[in-house]
C-alpha cells in the first residue's frame, strides 16, 4: 500500500458534479474547491475520510479502486491473507452464516482468512495499559487513519499526543506475518477509504464495496459455498470495535461513567470540536477516543451509509454468538504468542494549514458579496461554509467563489432580470419607432409621387373654374356649382401641400436659435381664439439650441393648432421649456377633449384624423414625428379623454439635443 498517499484517494468524476456544495459542507477540512463549475478535491488538503463520497447524490465523488493488484495477488504464487475488518457483519448482513462469507473469500482465492478483530484485541490491551497508567500523558486515539491525518495536517503541534500504538489492521498484519511468514501478501478488507493510505506494512486495502464487486465479477454467491471458520488467531471481545465506544467496551472501560477519563467523539463535527478543546487545554484530564465516522460501520466503503442502529445490532449479535462458543484458553495461547511484539508506531507532522488572511482582505471579500454590516451576515450555510466569515476566508484562500453565496447570487439574478426587462422595454420602443419611421418613409415616397402628379391638374381645374366663373353671368345658377369646384380644388391643394411637406427630403438645416423667442413667435403665427388662454414659461438658463427653423415652426404650430382645436369651448394652452442634461424639452399641454386610448396608437399614422372632412388631413403629427426624429429627438404623449378618471387634456413632450452631433 506504500505507493498510495492519503491525498490521492478521492477524486471528482468530471461533469457529474451539479455544484450543490453538499460536499463542501460535509468536508471536515474544506478540501474541496469549485473549479470550472466542478467541486474538485484538493488532494493536498484531503484526509481521506470519504465523507464527500457518502453525501454526493450524483456520485460525482469517488475513491480509487485497488481491486486490480488484489486480483494479481490471487492469481500469483504467494500465500494471500484476507484480513477482514470486524465491521463485516454490518455489511454482509444478508449472509446468515458468517462462515459462508469466509467460504466465499476462500473461493475468491485467499489462502487464509483472518479476523482483524484479534488485532483489535491486542490494540485494545495496549490502550488499556495507557488508560490505567495515571501518570501517562493524555492521548488522542490513533487507530482511525483519517483522525491521524487530521492531526498531522491541521494540528501538528498535537503530534505527540497521538497514541503511539498501531491500528488493529497493522497489528494484525504484523501478527499474521509472524504466524504465516514474511512473504505472504496481506489484503485488508474493510469499510474505510483512508486505510488505503494508512500504512506501508499492509500490501493492499480494498473496501467492502470493492469486495462485493469482485464477488460479482468472479460470479461468487452464497450458493455451493463450503462454510468454514476464520483462520487463527480468532478474535475475542474486540470484535465489537467498529461501533462507537467499541474499543472501550472491549476492555470494560465503558461501564462506570464516573470513573472514566475518556472523551468519546465520532462524526465530522464532534471529532474536530474534541480536538480543538483538547488543544485549548479544556479537558486536561481526559483522553480522546475519536472516530471520523459514526463508528467504522458508517465508513464510506460500506455499500449503504444508513441504518446505523441496525448495523450496530448486527455487530452485537455477531459478537454475542461468537462469545457463547468462545475458547478462552485457545485465545490466551495465541495472545501469549504475540503479546510482547512491537505494536508501536510514530507519527510525523505534515502541516497543511493555510495562513489566516488579513482582516482587510476578508472585509473586502465580504463587501464584494454584499455583506457590509453584521446584519448582512445571514450565515445560512448554503455555500457549504458555516458562516459568511468562513466563506470569505475560503474565497481569499482561493478555495471558494463568490457565486457560492446563494442570497447574493439570487439578488444579482433579480437585478439582472430587472435590467433585462428594462432593455426589453427599450428594445420594444425602439422597434416601435423604427416601424413608424419605416412606414413614414414609404408613405413619404408615395405622397411625393401623388402630390407631384396632382398639383398640375389641380392648378388647371382651379384656373378653368375661375375662368368659367368670370365668364358666367352673375345671376347664373352655375356660379354656385363653380364656387364649390373652386373650394374643393383649394382643399385638394391644401392636402397636396401637406403631402409635399411630409415628403420633404430627410434633411435638417440646424441653426443656433433662441428657442424661447422662437416659441413666442410660433404663437404669434397662429390664430388663438379669445376663449383660449396661453401660458408660456421657461426654466432654461441658456435659451439657445440648434434647430431647423422652418421645420421646427411646423412642429410647434401644428401641435399648438391641434391643442386649440381640442378646446372648442376654451381652455389653457400651456407651454413650458425645460432643460435636462444636454437636452431641451418642449412641454405643450392643453385641457381639451384628450385622446382616447384606442386612438393613441394611431395618431402618428398618416391620414389618421378624428376631425370632420375639410378640417383635418391627419398629416400633422406624422410630419412632426419625422422632424423630431431628424433632430435626434423623442416625442411622447400623455393624454386622458375619460372624465371618470380625471380632468381631460393632452400633453406633448418633445426632447431634442441642445447641440449638433449630440
Ligand atoms: P389633424 O389635426 O389633421 O387631424 P394630426 O396628425 O395633427 O391631424 O392629428 C391627428 C389626430 O390626433 C387628430 O385628429 C386628433 O384626433 C388627435 N390629436 C392631436 N392632437 C390632439 C390634442 N391636443 N388633443 C386631442 N386630440 C389630438
Ligand atoms: Mg393637426
List the helices and strands and how they pair.
Blueprint: E1 10-12, H1 22-26, E2 32-35, E3 38-41, H2 51-55, E4 61-63, H3 67-75, E5 80-84, H4 88-91, H5 98-108, E6 112-115, H6 116-132, H7 145-154, H8 168-180, E7 185-190, E8 204-207, H9 208-217, H10 246-250, E9 262-266, H11 270-279, E10 287-291, H12 308-324, H13 328-338, H14 359-368, H15 388-396, H16 406-471, H17 478-502, E11 511-514, H18 515-524, E12 532-538, E13 544-547, H19 549-565, E14 571-580, E15 583-590, H20 597-600, H21 620-630, E16 634-640, E17 649-657
Parallel strand pairs: 5-6, 5-7, 7-8, 9-10, 12-14
Antiparallel strand pairs: 1-4, 2-3, 11-13, 14-15, 15-17, 16-17
Helix pairs in contact: 6-8, 14-15, 16-17, 18-19, 19-21
The structure holds adenosine-5'-diphosphate (ADP) and magnesium ion (MG).
Description:
It is a single chain. The protein is of the alpha/beta class and 662 residues long. β14 and β15 form a beta hairpin. The protein has a five-stranded mixed β-sheet with strand order 12-14-15-17-16. A four-stranded parallel β-sheet has the order 6-5-7-8, with helices on both faces. Strands 1-4 form a two-stranded antiparallel ribbon. It is 42% helix and 14% strand. It is built from 21 helices and 17 strands. The longest helix has 66 residues. The chain has five domains: 64 residues, Alpha-Beta Plaits (2-Layer Sandwich), CATH 3.30.70.20; 258 residues, no CATH class; 45 residues, no CATH class; 87 residues, Helix Hairpins (Orthogonal Bundle); 157 residues, Histidine kinase-like ATPase, C-terminal domain (Heat Shock Protein 90, 2-Layer Sandwich), CATH 3.30.565.10. It starts with 9 loop residues before the first strand and ends in a 5-residue tail after the last strand. The chain binds adenosine-5'-diphosphate and magnesium ion.
